[in-house]
Every structure is written in C-alpha cells, then in structure tokens.
Amino acid sequence: MADIHIDLTKLNKRGFLDIEVDPSLDLFQEITRLKKEKNAILLAHYYQDADIQDVADYIGDSLGLARQAEKTTADLIVFAGVHFMAETAKILNPTRKVVIPDLKAGCSLSDSCPPEAFRLFRQQHPDHLVISYINCSAGIKAQSDIICTSSNAVGIVESLPKDQPILFAPDKNLGAYVNKVTGRNMLLWDGACMVHELFSREKIDRLCHRHPDALFIAHPECEETVLELADYIGSTTQLLQFVQKNSSSSFIVATEPGILHQMEKAAPQKTFIPAPPNNACACNDCPHMKLNTLEKLYLCLKYEEPEILMDESLRLAARKPIDKMLEISAKLGIQ
Ligand code: 13P
Ligand code: SF4
User: Fold this and answer.
1) Could you tell me the distance, in angstroms and rounded to a whole number, from the CA of residue 284 to the centre of ligand 1?
2) What is the CATH number of the domain that holds 55?
3) Cα 214 to middle of ligand 1, angstroms
4) Of residues 201, 174, 207, the one with CA closest to residue 190
5) Shortest CA distance to 121 belongs to which of 180, 156, 170?
6) Is residue 281 part of a domain?
7) Each residue's pLDDT tens digit, 273-320
8) By the 8 A CB rule, do 58 and 77 touch?
9) Do 228 and 269 fall into the same domain?
10) Contact criterion met (CB below 8 Å) for 34 and 40
C-alpha cells in the first residue's frame, strides 16, 4: 500500500511515478526487500538495462515471460518490459496485480498495427487464419486465432495444414522469414520493429570481414537482407543458448544489445560484438524498453503503480489465441 498520496493525474500524464528517490538508497537492497514483503515477482525481458536484469527473479524472451506470468502465485507481478508484455501477463493471470515501471514503454511494432485498421484488413480476407506475433496490443490479439513468438513462429505455422491460407501480423520481417523457412505464402501485415530494421547490411558485412572467426547471429525481426548474412537466426533465448553451445569464441549479434549482458555472464570467455545500425548512433537500444529505470522500478514496486488494467471481455478474447499458442508449443516441446 502507498504510504503517501500519489497524484494519479500527474501519473497518468507522465506514465510513471514522478517522485524523487533518495540517492543514498541502495535500490538493489530495497527492491529485494520489497519483493519479499509484498510477495512480488519481478519479470524482466533481456532488453532491459543490466541492473534491472540483475535484480529480476526471471529474465527471458516473450514466450518464457508469458509462461512465468501464467504460472506465478505471487500477489504482485512487476513487469520490467514493454506494455504488450505486461498486458499479456494480465491476460494470463488476471487475479494478480500487474504493474510496469513506465506505462509509456510501448513498442513500435505493436503501434504499427492499430486494431481498427486491422479489422478492415481481416474482413478483406475472411478465409484466412490469423496468426499474430505476441508483439501486438490486446485489441489485435483478440482478433487473432493463434499468437506466436519468435521462439515458436516456425513451429506453429508448420503445425497447420499446408493449404491453410494464413494472415500474419504485425511483423512483415518475421513473417517473411517464416514464409522462407516453411515454404508458405502467408499474407503479411506491413509492420516492423524500429530497432531491428536499423541494422546495416553493409556495416555488418564489413564487420564480418574484419572478424573472420566470428559467427553472425540475428533476431528474425531483422530485414531479409540482414538475415541472409546470418549463421544462426533465433529469438533472444535461442540466441543466448546458441552462443553457449557453439564452439566459436566470438559472435556479432544483431538484436537489441541488452541481451549481451546475459551472453557475457553465461560465456565470459567469449567475445560479443553488437551489430552496427544504419545511422550515426553507436547502438541499437530500444527506446521503449529503456524507458524503464531502476528508480522507476523501485517506485512502482513500492507504490504498486502504474497498474495494467483491462476490460474483461477484451481480456477473454485475447486469452484464447494465447492459450492456443501455449498448447501447440507444449505439444511441440518448444522451450
Ligand atoms: P523475443 O525476446 O521473444 O525474441 O522478442 C524480441 C523482442 O523484440 C521483444 O520486444
Ligand atoms: Fe518493440 Fe522492437 Fe522495442 Fe521489441 S525491440 S519492444 S519489437 S520496438
């Protein structure tokens, strides 16, 4: 419970608790204490800052995070990730309170697919089954037949009859990759992730030549021209597992650089080089993920705001295709 009055009008405008944090506080210690006191679980995506990852109870990709959110018995889920991820946690475990450090931590990919425009698109293709990548709003999930993540997209599509017409949203790059691997011809919504679209094929090519022993690994949200260069393509968890198992000692990594923290922890003797973007910036940080900070995380755990709230009929409609995904993934043994 909050021990001060929180100005919700201010919070709603800014999306986070704009309260000054005592700089002498040991935030790691305070967050650990509050988690215990409140029976809270802290779930974090790999793209979060290293300090947030270090204080989390579970770090994972979208599929792993959804599974953890579904099975937790904690009273409070603190979701250090972006809005659609926290929303998915609420959809899967509605009796828990779900909070996020910054309500405005959105996603360019999710934003590229507004529910009303998508409804019209679907109406034009009534015979198509709708598979949506989990990086979308509850409004899109509610219009979908099956959800997928980057871990299971290929497996889910392959589990369907070859002649089944499919509409895939919102990521055209992941969709094109799945089409290529499975030999399908899914109709693709024209959406993309601003972070993964920024990688430069030319700069990566030059980097690969400078590091001939390094393997180039990439997330399937990257454009086809970048994926063509890759020695391995996978979700964040799959990329992390790959660098641990593979005997190579250096890797050029094309995804949000937050993942490098876990790679360096898991394989400290290996070298990880972030792939360069196609602009003057030195990194490909996701500006949405990086809205969350340790201070905002501490405040949201302490005051249990901002909370993810959802209309129950929307939640139920959005849950169906996620359950379908979890059921197929479990059958296929996808981790
Ligand atoms: P995964 O961690 O599921 O691979 O997703 C990557 C991503 O872009 C999340 O926003
Ligand atoms: Fe969205 Fe891309 Fe950021 Fe992931 S990395 S949250 S897909 S904008």
Assistant:
1) 14
2) 3.40.50.10800
3) 23
4) 174
5) 170
6) no
7) 999 888 777 679 999 999 999 999 999 999 999 999 999 999 999 999
8) no
9) yes
10) yes
